[in-house]
Amino acid sequence: MSEEVPVTPSWLTPDPSWVSSGGGSMENATADAYPPVGLPPQPAVPPPADLLVNPWDIVLCTSGTLIACENALVVLVIWQNPALRAPMFLLIGSLALADLLAGLGLVLHFTFAYLLRSDSAQLLTVGLVVASFSASVFSLLAITIDRYLSLYYALTYNSERTAAFTYAMLVLLWGASLSLGLLPVTGVNCLSQEVTCSVVRPLTKNNVAVLSVSFLLLFGLMLQLYVQICKIVMRHAHQIAVQHHFLAATPHYVTTRKGVSTLAIILGTFAACWMPFTVYSLIADYTYPPLYTYATLVPATYNSVINPVIYAFRNQEIQKALWMVCCGCIPTTMAQRARTPSDV
């Protein structure tokens, strides 16, 4: 009868070099390899395995808590404010909800990994994290598409057709994300064959490769749409310059420029956060040191920390709603202006 594989507290496959070749435990191997500096090696008794907590997992859990708190506030504001029902705010709410679930997934994974230590709990939490981050990426793509349509079809953007298209995008992106998240639960995992594991256990190498390639394709599409948006904005700015003989800072031009700059910040932070982990997961496998995986995975979670900050501080409608929720009033210094399709 084959020996059962023990459940790993962390979702990363342990570094094979940590296990001693003589059958010793991981704690003994670590203690022998790294004796206290300045002291002779002594036969110290390692702490019980139940008390060992990976500090990187604590960092991920802390990031998950921050992500959940920030995005819960954004979801609450959009949910309670009837004025925030335009298509762009629905997509912002979808992004915040996806990041909120991702943060909860990180916290639940840490809790279940060190309390339950069961394969079922590991599969459920990893599936939740995969589905949530996939929905976050898809929501960013949907926001990019919405910004492009709001500029290309500016005259008909506020029609019912736009609202129906937005709901269709939401259904598709969440359906695709849930499908990706269910793959580990439905059997596409490496629990039975450790050699097929990727840098993130229990996801297989093929599964992570598909997710990484999909991310690169989606980012390429977002970048192409952003280039088209820039061309449209430059054409609008040129038309304004021709009509007024100078580049007038009209409200439409200001809000359009602000929306494009916000989109550039979103795409820039998105690439900076996710690109290292995406490239690393394509070239690495389970034999690579877990340190490299943590070093690229932790920055990827920061994208979900940055997203609500961008929306809260750059979107004036959400700023007003946040002031109402937190203080019950709106500062008089905040300009009163109508919401425009160009505002992100």
Describe it for me?
It is a single chain. This protein has 344 residues and is mainly α. It has nine helices and no strands. The longest helix is centred in the middle third of the chain and has 40 residues, at 205-244. Mean pLDDT is 78; it is low at 1-7, 15-51 and 338-344.
Keywords:
344 residues; mainly alpha; 9 helices; disordered N terminus; disordered C terminus
How would you summarize this macromolecular structure in one to three sentences?
The protein has helices at residues 26-33, 55-80, 87-115, 119-152, 160-182, 205-244, 251-283, 290-314, 316-326. The relative contact order is 0.13.
Sum up the overall morphology in one term.
Answer: globular
The averaged pLDDT comes out at: 78
Strand content: under 5%
Unreliable parts = 1-7, 15-51, 338-344
Largest sheet: none
**Continuous helix count:** 9
Write the layout of secondary structure elements.
Elements: H1 26-33, H2 55-80, H3 87-115, H4 119-152, H5 160-182, H6 205-244, H7 251-283, H8 290-314, H9 316-326
Helix pairs in contact: 2-3, 2-8, 2-9, 3-4, 3-5, 3-8, 4-5, 4-6, 6-7, 7-8, 8-9
